[in-house]
Amino acid sequence: MSHHKVRITVNGTAGEDEVEARQLLVHYLRETRALTGTHVGCDTSNCGACTVLLDGRTVKSCTVLTVAADGGDVLTIEGLDEQGEMSPVQQGFQACHGLQCGYCTPGMVLSATGLLLEQPDPDDDAIRTGIEGNLCRCTGYDMIVDSVRWAAAHGGAGTAATAHAAHAEGKH
Ligand code: FES
Ligand code: FES
């Protein structure tokens, strides 16, 4: 089994690790970097629970090999707050009751954050399109849409995600 050295920055912290060629980014984040906020919800690339930002774009981290993220910059749910204060999207989910069991929430929050980076003022249809790759068993989605709309009106993607996207832009 081949191993490869990778250098990946996660939530602003650089790391150099040796990983198996077949390892998925979601397992690297959870097991090697001990960031278990990124969830695994399916075996089919359908649920979106594993969504993170990679170089400024949302990806399902169960569809990305760790070696493919070599040199990359990842933002996970653990990196979204700013000096202990939740990001606007996180606050929106709290204010509008956008979660119940919470299993889908990290992925939903990252997808919504990615949407607001691209479209700061999305209408409800755009919000639903932005989160269509994320499944929720609990909420019926209406409160999630309310949460994203709340975030759009209260700071959007937030400073951590905006800085991450700007840094990624500088690399391209
Ligand atoms: S774990 Fe379900 S899409 Fe990645
Ligand atoms: S809040 Fe339970 S799956 Fe979405």
UniProtKB/TrEMBL annotation:
Pathway the protein takes part in: Alkaloid degradation; nicotine degradation
All residue ranges annotated as the 2Fe-2S ferredoxin-type domain in the record: 4-80
GO function terms (MF aspect): 2 iron, 2 sulfur cluster binding; metal ion binding; oxidoreductase activity
Protein name: (2Fe-2S)-binding protein
A Pfam family matched in the record: Fer2_2
Keyword list, A-Z: 2Fe-2S, Iron, Iron-sulfur, Metal-binding, Oxidoreductase
